[in-house]
Amino acid sequence: MTTIQRQIARDVVVVFIVSLIVITMLVMFIGVAREAINQGLGLPGVIRLIPFALPNALSLAVPGTALFSVCLVYGRMSADNEFVALQSVGISLLSSMLPAIAITSFLSIATVGLINLAFTWGFHGIQRVVISSVENIAYGVLERDRNFQHGDLTMSVWGVEGRDLIEPQIKIARANGEPVVIRGRSAQMAYRDDEQALELRITNGSAKIGASASFHFPDTFIQSIPLGIQSKYDLLTAHPSHMPMRDLSAASLRQSEDVYRREKQLAVHTGFSLLTSRCDQIADPAAVTREAEVQSSRKRLHRLGAEMHRRWASGFTCLAMSMIGIPLAIRLKASDTMTTFGIVFLPTILTYYPIFALTLEMAKDGRIAAQGVWIANVIFIGAGIVMMRQLVYRPN
After folding, report:
1. Distance separating alpha carbons of residues 193 and 189, to the nearest angstrom
2. Cα distance between residue 38 and residue 141, in whole Å
3. Exposed site from 164, 290, 309, 329, fewest CB < 10 Å?
């Protein structure tokens, strides 16, 4: 690297690090911490939550911070006519752009790692913190709103006095059965960490299981509600958004086999119904269920295919935005950093993210190939190359 390239790289890195620290602190302590405290998580819970929320906050902050850094450095240099001076001694503008391109390329790869960490370790860590703090959260929400909902549990109370819930009504939805509705004069909650369950001690009330059974209890009735995260990890059932990238390829292969197996079963059932002249079975409830399972399996296969490209394309937002920001900042020649950043940032955000969101949804639904997630990046990088070429060969 030449002296001028080292100087530009140093300026970009310094601005980026300072800006990233400030923006991440704002996101973490004004956004995450404030919302967590408002939801009743408490200061100890917030402190436990911060390490798991940090990768997601960084992955969101890095693209905008990278764009801000190149706008500041290249906008200031252009306003001070430093690029004119470089060209006057025969130094091409391209050589001065290469440091920022190299830095944002490295940041893009690092952001992919942050996204993968946030979607897996960070997500599951936040879940564990929230579940372990569900007792305090529930008491806080019930005291404020008189209603609380978490997963299959819905609870409403007349009031809260200390640890006592006055006249609670508890509804527990069950996937394979009728809902359970419990009413009582008072109740108390306690979280059991060893069972990852919320224990409800209800006094003097009644319980009703759908329309099939009901009973009254004058003493204390204990109801345990499991809240733990599913411990068994299965490539065929895990949510694609929260799987490590190393497992996505294997999961796609397993899912393809599952789609093929279900399609064969549906074809065999349809063929057998036609051979035996039982056409009514082709559209009976069991056949409709099998068709729905095939469609669900196909949809998950599309989501698995799009997930890998989604994470890489999201990470390379840094490079895509910077490729636009560098030539625009040089063209504007504005010494006011915020003006340059605003002119570049708003159109970039308003154009890039709608295209990215649209192509991602289409890729998840199978309407376009999974590689279509890269369309926004290709457009921005291509436009950036064109603008850089114009600056190099037609600077005026």
Report:
1. 13
2. 9
3. 164
